Amino acid sequence: MKALETLMVAKGYVDPAALDAIIDTYETKVGPRNGARIVAKAWTDPAFAKWLKDDATAAIASLGYTGRQGEHMVAVWNSDTEHNLTVCTLCSCYPWAVLGLPPVWYKAPPYRSRAVIDPRSVLAEFGLELPESTRIRVWDSTAEIRYLVVPQRPSGTDGWSEERLMELVTRNAMIGTEQAALPGKVAA
Amino acid sequence: MNGPQDLGGQMGFGPVAPDRNEPLFHAVWEPRALALTVAGGAMGHWTIDESRHVRESLPPAIYYGITYYEIWFRALSALLVRHGFLSEAELASGEVSAPRRAPNRVPDADMMRGVLARGGPTERPVATPARYRAGDRVRTIVEHREGHTRLPRYVRGKVGTIEIIHGGHVFPDTNAHGGGEAPQWLYTVAFDGSELWGRGADPSLSVSVDAWESYLEPA
Asked: Which of A11, A60, A119 lies closest to B196 in space, CA to CA?
C-alpha cells in the first residue's frame, strides 16, 4: 500500500493533501451521528418525518448531509408489525453520507450471504429476537439507492429533546440489526 | 458475472460476529487504501461500475481470503495498469520506470471535499415512459452474463412486485465496460421469501432488490 501511494504521488496522480482530506472527512465529519440526527428529528418533527417518507434525499440534504454513497436516499420505517434490514449482497453498498464507513461485518460474506435467506438468525447474533408475527423486510442495495432504517422511538422518552434522543439511535439500529437503545441504557 | 461477490443465500461462512467496539480502521494502511481508491476514481478514467467489476473478477479463493480494503487495493492496482497509469514493473518494484499518463483531473484538497460532498448521482433522463407501475407483477430474467451485472443469482427467474419507481438511472452492465451510461428505469422489486427460497423459507420474510427495467418482464 505504501509503495502504491508512493508511486501515485510520485507520478502526480494524487495530491497528498487530497488524500488527507478524504480520511479526515470519514474520521471526523461523516459518521452515524448524521443518521442519528435525521432519525431523532423524524421522531420529534412530524413535518420532517413526512418529508423523509416522501423524498428522503431532499429531507436529508436539508440537514446538510449529501454526497458520496448517499446521492439517492430512501428511508424505511420499523413498526410493531414490520422490521427492516439493509444489506448489499453484491458488494458493500452503504449510506456513507448518513452512517459513515461500513463496519467490517457488513462487508463480509457471513452477513452478505445470510441476511437475505435467514435474517432472523443474523438478528439473533446481534441480540435481537423478534416475535414470529413480525414481518421482516430486507432491502438488498443492488443499485445506487441507499436505505436508512428509521427505528421505532423507545417508550419512556416523551418530552426528550432531539439531542437527547440522538443518543438512543445507534448505527446498527439504522442498518436494522438492532432496535434503538432503551432510555435506561445510555447516560441521559 | 456469477463471481465470488454474488453472496446472497450462500452457506458456510459462519457467524456474523459483530464487534461492539469496532475501530473505524484496523490497520494504518486501511485509510490509505480508502483514500487512494477514492482519489484514483476522481482522476476520471473509470466508473464505479468498472471498479466493482474488477473487484468481483478476483478469483474466488483470493476474494474470500482477504479483507475488503485488500480487495479495493488489488482492484485499484489493476485499474491503474489497465488504464496505462502504472506498469506491472512499477507495481512490482515500487519505483517509477514508465512514462506518466496525464490524468483528466488531480483534485486538490478543496476540490476533493467538493467531490465527496457532491458524490456521483446516477439519475438520468430516460426518453421512454416507465413500463411498470407500483403494484405490477414482474418476473426477473434468467441470464448468466460474463460481464458486470447487478441482478443477483438468488433473484433470477423470480416473480415479485414493483414497489418503488426510482426514475432513470445509469445502467451498470454497460457502464462497467465502456458501453456508456445507457440509463434505464430503475425499480425496487419485492419478493416473498417463499418465492426466493422455497420450502422452509421464513414465512414472514420479504426481500427486495433494485432492478433496471431490462432485468424485468411482465408476469
From this structure: A119
CA distance A127 to A66: 32
Mutation site, A113, A137, A146, A172, interface B, largest B CB count within 10 A: A113
Q: List active site positions of A.
A: 88, 91-93
* Window B:188-207, CB contacts with A under 8 Å: 188, 190, 196-197, 202, 204-207
- B21 interface with A at CB cutoff 8 Å: no
Secondary structure of residue B109 in the 3-state scheme: helix
CA-based Rg of chain B, rounded to a whole angstrom?
20
Paired with A75 in beta bridges are A148
ipTM value for the complex: 0.97
pLDDT in tens, B93-151: 999 999 999 999 999 999 999 999 999 999 999 999 999 999 999 999 999 999 999 99
Please name the residue of chain A whose CA is at the shortest distance from the CA of residue B196. A117
A132 exposure class (CB count in 10 Å sphere: 0-12, 13-18, 19+): exposed
Q: Rounded to two decimals, what is the model's pTM?
A: 0.97
Residue of chain A with shortest Cα separation from B95: A7
Pick left, alpha or beta for residue B188 (phi over 0 → left; psi -120 to 50 → alpha; otherwise beta): beta
Chains A–B, number of C-beta pairs less than 8 Å apart = 253
Please answer whether residues A151 and A38 qualify as being in contact, where contact means their C-beta atoms are separated by less than 8 angstroms.
Answer: no
